[in-house]
DNA sequence: AGTCCACTGGAAAGTGGGGGAG
DNA sequence: CTCCCCCACTTTCCAGTGGACT
């Protein structure tokens, strides 16, 4: 036998645990689906159809429900000669403005006709909108436009103003656009300009987080398919459901947890997935998320993190922003990198706080020292240094910080499994 | 009750880079 | 080449903020 022996297989078919898996039925969302169907019904009846907005945190079934409804809608539409329906789906995950969404829509519409894609930069916004109307008009009939994770566009909501009014403004005349907006962020709706809000959120459907029982019911059929018989001990699915329910109520989280637990089990070449595997999987996933968050920071972000790590290594935490900024300047100096303003560093710090990398404490000492924030790492110093060490430009500095921390005996702080 | 410290964080304007059109 | 577009990241400016102090 060579170095690569085949592991004992716990998975029968891992696909039901994949993020992209589409179950044939949507569980635990009966009420929402019914509302959804009522909202889409006018399309089949050839009546004017309202735009629809779905709200709810990630992993609450919005996307799955939409895929499900659309495929049923398309199937039904085929049965009626006078219903001319098309659908376009754009995920706005990496799109940060209306402009980019419009470009993505144009390209999605062109893809179906083998036309050339347009560039993501260079045109004026109006030019892209014109192209979009052109494509839509060429399609005709009712076009359901799904904008998934639309909250990513932030305040730049021009497209949400333009699209629903395209017809009444005379930009298109043969097509009836119906917009389905999907948002992970509740605040997104409130921050929309009032004129957009009226037209867009005509029909709203809320997707609340799942509780542990619902998650269990979602997991069970998938677990059944994904794993060989007898591989899962009884507590595994309920535990995954419980962890996810406690944290976010996200089905995606629960499913990932179950998959990770299976993968850990398989890697260990053991026969059954146990409660312990689930706990390990939970740690592993959390760790990966932090790791990834750190790696994706910009150079400036890394420099700020590096400065904070230095303070941590010197046991000078929590640090107030003034002192941290000074250290940050010396870090930039060492790296021969440009430094940014204090204001900008505060933004980087608040980003890292969002990611869960650092903790912030607000202090107020009135007349004597005023009001300020204090920062410290929220994750083990060693983890930060590992990431910095694997980031170009930071190798040398992270070594220096590491030895500083060693001198202060700050690296073996009990959390050695990171 | 009012002062004041030392920031905090919102807003707006600037910068440079990627790209189209003529 | 020139002029225009958009965007990520940044700087500049500054009106709050809120607890300790008088």
TrEMBL record:
Biased composition (Basic and acidic residues): 1-10
Domain AAA+ ATPase intervals: 48-206
Region (Disordered): 1-29
Source taxon at top rank: Archaea
A GO BP annotation: DNA replication
Keywords linked to the UniProt accession: ATP-binding, DNA replication, Nucleotide-binding
Gene3D superfamilies, sorted: 1.10.8.60, P-loop containing nucleotide triphosphate hydrolases (3.40.50.300), Winged helix-like DNA-binding domain superfamily/Winged helix DNA-binding domain (1.10.10.10)
Binding site for ATP: 60-64, 210, 222
An annotated Gene Ontology molecular function: ATP binding
Domain Cdc6 C-terminal positions: 305-388
NCBIfam families tied to this protein: orc1/cdc6 family replication initiation protein
PANTHER family: CELL DIVISION CONTROL PROTEIN 6-RELATED, ORC1-TYPE DNA REPLICATION PROTEIN
Family: Belongs to the CDC6/cdc18 family.
Stated role: Involved in regulation of DNA replication.
Protein name as catalogued: ORC1-type DNA replication protein
Naturally occurring in which organism (per UniProt): Halovenus salina
